[in-house]
Design brief:
Radius of gyration: 17 Å
Strand content: 25-35%
Structural class: alpha/beta
Distance between the termini: 39 Å
Shape: globular
Helix content: 25-40%
Order of helices and strands: EHEHEHEHEEEHEEEHEE
Number of domains: 2
Number of helices: 6
Length: 212
């Protein structure tokens, strides 16, 4: 199996270590523009010194794709990748997420440029959470999948494109490359503004865009 980990900070190192423990023969590539962070990685992984977003845009194609992409950098990776791809032939314009969306997601938090974060937790989650399907690992209380909440949001005039993050090991989430290409296709097919959403069962982020 092949894994591309974008980011060699704390969460990138955790991802590399846990994936190696679960899949010893895996081909693991870690990308970061911080050489010191790359030097701190365990041996047995390929370390590439460059920005993770730049690497993903230049390297990912239908013919050249890993089994899993693990975002470990503080950006909405799927959204940034789609925007960069669209800029080759289109004129994508970032849009703030509509304010009424915040009333439809748990624990909303506004970021810069109209980015909306959501979380099922109002506490710091343990980094070894196995992400149970129907309940919270820490509290034991029942909870709904956040990606399902995103899919049923009511956003008149907007098309919702939801990309699911899957748990690869406790505390490590990954995205399928095919899901990125599908999301790009859905954005191109939209007739108006789009909400690009990425979520696992508990945490997620939403950005808006429009093709002009």
């Amino acid at each position: 199996m092949g894994f591309w980990i974008l980011g060699a900070g704390k969460f990138g190192r955790i991802a590399a270590e846990r994936i190696r423990e679960k899949h010893p023969p895996a081909l693991i590539t870690v990308v970061d523009n911080d050489q010191d962070a790359l030097d701190a990685l365990d041996s047995g992984v390929e370390a590439l010194h460059m920005p993770g977003g730049e690497f993903l845009f230049n390297a990912l194609s239908r013919e050249n794709a890993p089994d899993w992409i693990v975002p470990a950098i503080p950006v909405h990776m799927a959204y940034e990748w789609i925007m960069a791809r669209l800029e080759r032939e289109k004129s994508p314009w970032p849009l703030p997420v509509p304010f009424e969306i915040a009333d439809q997601v748990p624990n909303p938090l506004w970021g810069q440029q109209g980015t909306l974060y959501a979380s099922q937790a109002d506490f710091l989650c343990p980094d070894n959470c196995p992400e149970p399907e129907h309940h919270c690992f820490k509290t034991g209380l029942p909870r709904e999948n956040l990606f399902d909440i995103f899919r049923r949001m009511q956003a008149p005039g907007y098309t919702q494109v939801v990309i699911q993050s899957y748990q690869l090991t406790p505390g490590v989430g990954g995205i399928k490359p095919d899901d990125l290409f599908l999301a790009e296709k859905q954005v191109l097919a939209a007739s108006g503004p789009v909400l690009v959403c990425t979520a696992c069962r508990c945490h997620g982020v939403i950005n808006g865009l429009e093709l002009t």
